[in-house]
Specification:
By secondary structure, the protein is an all-alpha fold. Helices cover 86% and strands 0% of the residues. It contains 11 helices and no strands. Helix 1 packs across helix 4 (101-210), helix 3 packs parallel to helix 4 (101-210) and helix 4 (101-210) packs antiparallel against helix 11 (312-357).
């Protein structure tokens, strides 16, 4: 069996004979165990290098001159023997560099891969002399194989622990969102209760004010104003009906600006009256021998009645009603916020269920 086959055996069959016990269960214990394995590997590497250096010195002193084998065969052996020694020296150089266990396995695998052909050809004449070197390497490989196996199992456990921790951390992060959203909903509900109390208080105050004598008098005055305004508006309507707009239009058809005023009044008398601040229509109608000068007074009286301020109690009621509108808007805003936060809680719940399935 060649050394490559030996090595393959160490990396496969030997694993069955040396089961790993007491695999750490926590991140801290895994870190400690990995460091322990690294220290152990460093110690084994140092011892191996010392033995290997001594063995190389012995091999370098081998004398091929006294051998009686075919010179051509001796030449092939010497060349491969020298090449194998070079691989041994390179192995020492690689092992003296900083390493971790996975890298150590790569170094050894590369040595085996590239040195085996030279080793096998060199053993044609000096198999016995290379036997001890082979035994040292095989022993070292066995030790490192065991360490590598332990390291691999621990690393797999570490990966699982880290993956689980990531999931748990994510779940905790999502739960914080749930807690925050739940707190916001509780706060919103509390504010809604406050706003409803405020609204009820305002509505009760308005109800009381509307049952007072002061409000009744104010409403009576308001009704009188409305009736008076309607009466005045009827007088304006009577004036409008007496104006001959066709005649007016024919009289001023050559005057564009005056004709425009006449047309505006004919199309929408109330609107034109609002816009005709100088009451130009009064002078225009005089051309038809009809006096509508009272129109300005009627319009002024209507404006006065409309401008008349509300009573104090009406002003208070109007202000309270505006406050109620603001309260309603605030309640709607809070309800919308509750809806959004409830969606967040539901989404968070779904995410947690998915993550827990991965544990």
């Amino acid at each position: 069996m060649g050394i490559l086959d030996k090595i393959k055996k160490f990396f496969s069959e030997e694993k069955i004979d040396t089961p790993i016990k007491d695999v750490p269960e926590s991140s801290d214990s895994i870190t400690s165990k990995k460091q322990e394995l690294k220290v152990k590997a460093e110690k084994q590497v140092k011892e191996f290098i010392l033995h290997l250096k001594d063995k190389i010195i012995e091999l370098e002193n081998l004398d091929f001159s006294k051998r009686k084998e075919n010179e051509k065969l001796k030449l092939v052996v010497k060349e491969n023997f020298a090449l194998y020694l070079e691989y041994l020296r390179k192995l020492i150089v690689d092992l003296e560099k900083p390493f971790d266990i996975p890298k150590l396995i790569v170094i050894i695998n590369n040595f085996v891969k590239f040195s085996t052909p030279a080793f096998e050809k060199a053993t044609f004449l000096i198999g016995e002399e290379l036997g001890e070197a082979k035994q040292q390497i095989n022993s070292f490989l066995k030790e490192i194989s065991q360490l590598s196996q332990e390291y691999h199992i621990i690393s797999e456990k570490e990966s699982k622990i880290n993956a689980k921790k990531m999931v748990m951390d994510k779940i905790e992060e999502i739960k914080k969102i749930q807690v925050e959203s739940t707190s916001k909903i509780e706060n919103c509900n509390f504010k809604i209760v406050q706003q409803k109390d405020k609204k009820n208080k305002l509505e009760n105050e308005i109800s009381e004010m509307k049952q007072s004598k002061e409000y009744a008098l104010a409403q009576e005055e308001k009704t009188k104003r409305v009736q008076e305004i309607k009466k005045l508006e009827k007088e304006i309507e009577k004036i409008k009906e007496k104006i001959d707009f066709k005649l007016l239009s024919s009289l001023f058809h050559t005057n564009e600006s005056k004709n425009r005023i006449i047309k505006d009044y004919a199309d929408n008398f109330r609107k034109a009256l609002e816009e005709d601040k100088k009451f130009e229509i009064i002078e225009l109608v005089k051309a038809t021998n009809f006096d509508i000068s009272p129109l300005s007074t009627i319009k002024a009286n209507i404006d006065f009645l409309k401008r008349e301020n509300n009573s104090e109690i009406e002003t208070i009621i109007n202000a309270s009603e505006e406050k109620i509108k603001a309260v309603d808007n605030e309640i709607q805003s809070l309800l919308l916020e509750i809806k959004e936060e409830s969606k967040k809680i539901e989404k968070a719940k779904e995410k947690i269920e998915l993550l827990e399935n991965d544990l």
